[in-house]
Design a protein that fits this description.
Layout (H helix, E strand, L loop, with lengths): L7 H7 L41 E6 L2 E2 L3 E4 L7 E2 L6 E3 L1 H13 L2 E6 L5 H7 L4 E7 L2 H4 L3 E8 L2 E6 L17 E3 L5 H6 L7 E2 L6 H9 L5 E5 H10 L3 E4 L12 H4 E6 L4 H11 L4 H14 L5
Parallel strand pairs: 1-6, 1-7, 10-11, 10-12
Antiparallel strand pairs: 2-3, 3-5, 4-5, 7-14, 8-14, 9-12, 9-13
């Protein structure tokens, strides 16, 4: 088991440095020793312990980002206990973590952390990996290493079926609308500013809060990725997805923005190779089938 309490202070100090949708600013903070190790913090050139020497892969996620991950009251549909909680985690990220553990003979431990605490958790060794729908951006790669991709996610918008923007065919048709997205994501930082004269509201702290802003008509539309949007319309049938991909009037994003990966401590080559050995044998269709399963079983309050 990882020594959760021993590293909590370090995590708190680092929490402000990172945002899960946009990499932490500044230079990487030197990593603390991997949990369970008596060694001092890593120095340049020193080997990084895999973190799974004890046979347990400790994975952090929000448990509040359906269909990627959510919390539920029981272990139905293969849900996994959340550490230090009476709840269970499920969703695409949990399903993928289980596949990775099964392939490598590890037990799986899920830790629930806030969105902006995930990267610091990897940097300090509090957890072995983050599987939480993170884009593999160059900025974030300065802070952590990435296994994957383990999903490819198209950028889309959500609006209300009876709203003024329901018939939008491209981002130019969203001009002048009121919008938001989740804090610290490429959706908010990169995509929304591309909409001409958009009235961009403060970012939502969580994906559920983002969706609630649309459901209550606080905004005209939100920007997110396809899996999140598909999960949303399953819960909010009054919403519709605006997918501009394949046309000339779409958001300008890089491949790294839509490649979703698993973040690890810098230099953790052993774990990186172990995860990539499994992921490299999977196709985009494999990922999409698993995401469809997650969307199908997500709870209405997920």
């Amino acid at each position: 088991m990882k020594k959760f309490t021993a590293l909590l202070l370090a995590l708190t100090l680092l929490a402000g440095l990172a945002a899960c949708g946009g990499a932490p600013s500044g230079d990487p903070t030197p990593a603390a020793s991997p949990a369970g190790s008596a060694e001092p913090a890593e120095t340049p050139g020193a080997a990084v312990a895999s973190g799974v020497e004890d046979g347990v892969l400790t994975v952090a996620m929000e448990c509040a980002y359906a269909p990627y991950n959510w919390a539920q009251a029981d272990d139905s549909n293969g849900a996994v206990p959340i550490k230090d909680s009476s709840e269970y985690a499920n969703g695409y990220d949990v399903m993928m973590a289980k596949k990775l553990c099964e392939a490598n003979g590890w037990a799986l431990e899920i830790v629930r952390l806030d969105w902006d605490s995930l990267i610091p958790a990897v940097q300090t060794g509090l957890v072995d990996a983050v599987i939480a729908g993170q884009s593999m951006t160059p900025e974030r790669m300065e802070q952590v290493d990435f296994a994957g991709p383990y999903l490819y996610a198209t950028i889309v918008c959500l609006t209300l079926k009876d709203g003024a923007f329901a018939s939008a065919k491209g981002i130019s048709d969203l001009a002048g609308g009121t919008a938001t997205s989740q804090l610290g994501t490429i959706w908010y930082d990169t995509c929304l500013p591309q909409v001409k004269d958009a009235k961009i509201q403060p970012a939502a702290e969580t994906a559920p809060a983002m969706l609630m802003a649309l459901a209550t008509k606080t905004v005209d539309f939100v920007c997110t990725d396809m899996p999140t949007a598909q999960g949303a319309v399953a819960v909010y049938p009054e919403m519709t997805i605006l997918d501009f991909s394949g046309g000339g009037d779409d958001f300008a994003v890089s491949e790294s923005d839509v490649n979703i990966g698993i973040s690890l401590m810098k230099g953790n080559a052993i774990l990186l190779d172990a995860l990539n050995n499994v992921l490299s044998a999977m196709t985009a269709d494999d990922f999409n089938v698993l995401m469809a399963e997650a969307t199908e079983i997500q709870p209405s309050n997920g």
